[in-house]
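Morning!

As promised:
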Amino acid sequence: DTGVSQDPRHKITKRGQNVTFRCDPISEHNRLYWYRQTLGQGPEFLTYFQNEAQLEKSRLLSDRFSAERPKGSFSTLEIQRTEQGDSAMYLCASSLRAQGYNEQFFGPGTRLTVL
Amino acid sequence: AQTVTQSQPEMSVQEAETVTLSCTYDTSENNYYLFWYKQPPSRQMILVIRQEAYKQQNATENRFSVNFQKAAKSFSLKISDSQLGDTAMYFCAFLASGNTPLVFGKGTRLSVIA
C-alpha cells in the first residue's frame, strides 16, 4: 500500500499523560499536513511541513503540542499533559508541491481518547 | 480568513435517486479551489471532485457533478443514481491558490436508503 499511513489507529490514555502519533506520507510527497477532527466537525488545520521545515502552525496548536519531520519523510505529533478536550481524530495528509494544484491525500487517522 | 458553511447536517436519499448537498463559502481571494471530500464510516477521507475558481465550466466526475456559482460563492454537489456505497460524511473544502491548508465545512451526513 503506497498511501498515507498513520500509527497507531487508536490510542486511549489518561489525562496528564503524553502521547505521540506517527504519520508516513506518500514517498515522493514533500508537504505534510496535520489536521484535527472532533465529533460532528470538519477537520481543522494544525500545522504543515515542507520537507523538514515547519511552515505554519494554527492557533489550535497550543504549547502542549509539538510536531516534527526530522528528515523530511515521516512526521510525529506529540501531545504533552493530555486533556479531555484533546480527544479527537488526528488526520495526516501529504501532497507534492509543484506548479498549480496539488491534491492532499489523507491517512486513516489516529483516534485519541483521553479519559 | 476563509470560511466554509454547510447548512445541512444530515440528508437522506433513496437508492437510484438524485440528491444535492449545499455549500457556501466566504473569501476575498480571486484564485482558489473548491472540493468535495467523502469520509465513509471507515473514516479515510477521499476526494470526490474539485473545481478551479477560474473555470466557468462545472466539474463532473461520473455520477458526481457540481454547481459552482462564483458570484454567489456557492458550490453544491449533485449525486445522481445514488448508491448504498455513497453513504458517508461529505465535506466541502476550500484551498487558496498558494496550496495552503484546506479549510473544511462541518460536513453533511448522507444516508442512502435501499
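The radius of gyration of chain A is 14 Å.

Hope this helps with the figure draft.
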